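Long-time lurker. I teach an intro course on protein structure, and each term I like to show students one example going from raw sequence to a predicted 3D structure in token notation. This year I'd like something fresh instead of my usual example. Would anyone be willing to generate the tokens for the chain below so I can use it in lecture? Attribution to the forum is fine with me.
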Amino acid sequence: MKSECPDIAIQQTTLGGKPVYTITVNEIINFKSAFGHKCLCTGPTFSLGSACQYSCAFCYVESVVQKHPEVQKLRAELDSKKLKFEDVVIVRNAPLDIMREQLTIGKPRYVDLQTPGVIFSSPLVDPSPNLQMALQTAQACRIILEMTNWDIRLLSKSNLLPEVARNIPEQFKHRLIYGVSTGTLDNQLARAFEQGTALVSKRLESLHWLQDNGHRTYGMICPSLPQDDYDQFTSDMTAAIRVDRCEHVWGEVINLRGRAIPRTCEALRKGGYQKEADSLLSVCDTGKKKAWEQYARDTFLAQTRHIPPEKLRFLQYVKPNTVGWWNQHRAQGAVLLGTAAGE
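-- Reply from a regular --
Happy to contribute to a lecture. Here you go:
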């Protein structure tokens, strides 16, 4: 099925000051992703790119895509130009055509397009970092909406999700769920370790616009740093996202994958946030496993005091020696991840 709207391709040579590279892939939709364990979808996800316009210090995407043959081939060129993965944007060739093919002749037998479900975007790149990409995401959403009975959950660090919403036909409005993520309400602190993203205040304005105009929304409080007062932090965050208007709220401390911790600490120091860098380092230095666990528990318990248990989805990677505590708190919103959780 061909959508009425013309396809949108990303043709710029730079985005957000980064050079743009195009790679060829066979899949845009991952029909069986691990994001189902995070309750963000019922299994499927889609990504229109492989490296983002933004430069978040805690990003772990490189560790996910680095083994892809096309990314490995690109790596040699980047090395020759002394460019790091985070220095470039990687888009995918003909993503909407590939998506259509995956939903027709390339559909796995076990996938039922007519059974209601939720598909999530994006596990790799922001779906709306600029207007053109927001419109491309809207086009991708229209393909999914026309060819399946799935709802779509979008997550962004931009303030352009309303542009996606404006380009979705009214008949499909109820099948989109929009969220913006942030682990702080401080614009300058966020800018220190989330370079290139929209100001937090602008993200929240866009979330409020969606809520005020009858769109489905959810909250994403992550990645949240160690706090002096976890309860006050959570109270402020839940008020800012208007938790009463969110269908669900996800929470998570900073992810340990890849180079997230050292890069985030370095970015905080460069931004003038020495105290915050020291606090993060104090809970994740070698031998500080108990401090890390306490940081996660304090963050979670504060959220349980401000977010109804039926709405809270707190993501926590557990170990054999911690799984028991978190398992006892599933009813309050704990979502257990990792091999110790039985994934």
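Some talking points for your students: The chain has two domains: 1-119, 157-343. The two ends are 36 Å apart (CA to CA).
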